[in-house]
Amino acid sequence: MPVVTLTKSNSVTLDTYITDQSPSSSYPSDTAIVVGRNSSGKFFRALLKFDFGLIPNNVIINSATLSLYQTSQNTSNTSNRTINVHLVTSPWDGNVTWNNAPSIGPVYASFTALNVQTQSYNINVKQLVQDIVNGTVPNYGFLLMDSSESDLHTNRSFSSFDNTSNQPTLTIDYTIPSTGRKQVEYVGFKATSTATSVMSTALELPSGIQTGDLLIAQVAKRDTSTAIAGLNGWTSITDRVIPVTSGVSFRYGIYYKFASSSETAPTITSPTATFWQAAVSAYRNTKAVRETVFSDFAANIPNPPNAATAYDRTMILVLSSINSFVTAKPYSLSFQEQVEAGSSATAITLYSMAKYMYNAKSIQGTDMKVEFSSSGSGEIRALFLEPITNNPPSLTLTSPTDNQTLAEGNTMPVAGTASDPDNGNAVTVKYAINGGTARNITSAISDGSTAIPFSKTLTFTNGRLYDGQTDVSGPLAENTTYTVSVYAVDDQGGTSTAITRSFTVILNRPPTINLDPYNANRTGVSELEALTFAGTVTDPENDTVSLTVAVNGGTPVTLKSGVASGTSFAFSIPVSALAFAANTVVFTATDAKGASTTKTLTVNKAGSLAPVKTAVVRYAITPPLGTATEIATWVDREIGDLTVYAAASIVAAGASESYEDMALNSSVPVKDGSVMEDEFVGTADQPGAKVTLRLTLTRDDTASDKAVKRIMGGIA
To answer: Within this chain, do residues 131 and 190 fall inside the same structural domain, yes or no?
Structure first.
């Protein structure tokens, strides 16, 4: 994991501060940058920027730390302050002022500035740097401002790039991704130099090169009469005699090729013995060598002409040759040295340096200077390398639909199309259930334009999803949401956005018995009353349902047979039929597939029979013809200690009840002689619509258990 610390000495940097105290002034050369609000209510905000030319684009940022040193703070400040780090979203330069300040984005990071005069701070700006190297946001630098600018006395100063000590730095730890790369990666170089004049020599290749790596050969020879030979299969960028003002003459060529799986070092040749100086550098993930410009020089700090490219995310190489054995280094900041190869025997030095361009497509020649330790004549050339930027595949999913429910035997088709804009990429469509094992649906080679169809049918059976005969889900439960995710990958590390659909399953669930609310703790219940339980019976699969009930383990009685899901039912049981103990009432519902469920009620009947000496009951009777003038009733009572008196009220609708005793016409034994049937008749002077029968039952002994067995009657 390379770690690069960007500083004023190796990176193009810029900082300043802006303030409404002097809204049209700029401070690019101050030794401090200021943040906060002073005691007069004036605002201060700091801007700083690092060029990222030394950091490859689209790498994985493991950490990024902005280091600042506080040199002072307002002496009236009484508390720690939170300083926010914002992304700057528009360009600015050293002439920026409060009046033409750049726009800013959201807060990316913050840190606590302590209530002290001097202090070092290390600020985590990993996400901001990651977004910059990914190209998600442009690199216009950072803006620092107090999080609460309404407070006075909060201004504090930090060392700037123009301070002699404690300048800002940005330390970046990064990793080049193993797949899906979008940057040219420098691999290394090997130099070749001859100590004597020879007609041929073998170039050395850098170690660790792989198939597809770009190889760039810089070759110089002292003999200028003939072209450089032996680089068969290599593409020539230049091969020419370099004009010199003094010193040795030489011929200089630049060649390139993409390494094969069995790449061997070429042997360069000349018909005349000569001194050779060469270097081969290697670059990974390079798509093409693009635009190049060059110029000749006779100096020790040359630069090429202005350069421009039509491509994004390039690496720019600056390649130099000079007719002197010298040392060299980047004169311009944000460049990384890659090749330095020379010898006193050849009196020639070859050099190259590189920078990542990000979204920039042009660069000034004066920003690509090389510094040699002494003057000489040579060529300096700028060359753009375009990275392989794999476009990930995309995917359209036509089925399944979202939030579907699978029942026993249902199928779930997985179908759609995948596309990859890169011709020749191998595309594989995969699916996974609940984030588990990824399984292939189809694979095909993309032609760059035609959609690749895919289809797979999964079947739900026995509580599992099957791909053919393969269980791909494991056991699935009801009331749980599961997912199927579908995505496409290519052989260059690209992955489409996964499309996820949710689904649930229904096992063959038994019916459900739903009882209506009832009073579970009733008191004072008469033996003459009944308990009624009502409700509905439903089936999750809408199968037909049958319902039975059994009391105290007795034979089940069918309440409903083969009825539709959602059918209502009611069951009544006389209180007198219950034992003075725990009684069970068991409802059983069974669906058409044989799945069943039971609901058991326990009815505890407590207390004892407590006969009363007098009981009064009233019966409201609705005349079928609207009114009545006469009522007759027959009461069957057990012979013994029980006497029945009858009275009737026949009044107009809405009138108060007014009872008249009914005449006892007869008392006749019936059945086996244990029951006496009393006949009562009552009449009214006027017809009435409101008819009420009142029976008064009396005993002489409270221990008597004689009771009324039946009541009949009629009205006229």
So the answer is: no
Confidence band, pLDDT 50/70/90 cuts, at residue 694 = very high
Same domain, 444 and 344: no
Range of the domain at 126: 3-175
Same domain, 539 and 575: yes
Q: What is the pLDDT of residues 339-359, one digit of tens each?
A: 999 999 999 999 999 999 999
CATH number at residue 491: 2.60.40.10
- Read off the DSSP letter of residue 594: S
Q: How many domains does the structure of the chain reveal?
A: 5
Report the amino acid identity of residue 561. Answer: S
Of the three residues 355, 387, 419, the one that is the final residue of a domain is: 387
pTM of the entire predicted model: 0.64
Final residue before a domain boundary, out of 149, 175, 201: 175
Cα 315 to Cα 110, 293, 381, 672, distances in angstroms: 33, 14, 14, 119
Asked whether residue 609 is assigned to any structural domain, the reply reads: no
Give the pair of three-digit tokens for residue 634.
């027959």
Rounded Cα–Cα distance for residues 330 and 351 (Å): 10
Reported in sequence order, the residue ranges of 142-213 that DSSP labels E, i.e. its strands, are: 142-146, 156-159, 169-175, 185-193, 198-202
Tell me if the bond preceding 400 is cis, omega within 30° of 0: yes
Do 299 and 431 belong together in one domain?
A: no
Using alpha carbons, select from 9, 332, 336 the residue that is nearest to residue 167. Answer: 9
- Cβ–Cβ under 8 Å, residues 409 and 463: no
Query: What does the pLDDT read at residue 552?
Result: 95
pLDDT at 612: 64
Mean pLDDT, residues 588-598: 88
* Measured distance CA(382)–CA(375) in Å, rounded: 20
Chain centre distance of CA 363 = 39
Q: Which two tokens stand for residue 98?
A: 């409060």
Alpha-carbon 713 to chain mean position: 78
Domain-located, residue 180: no
Q: Per-residue pLDDT tens for 272-287?
A: 999 999 999 999 999 9
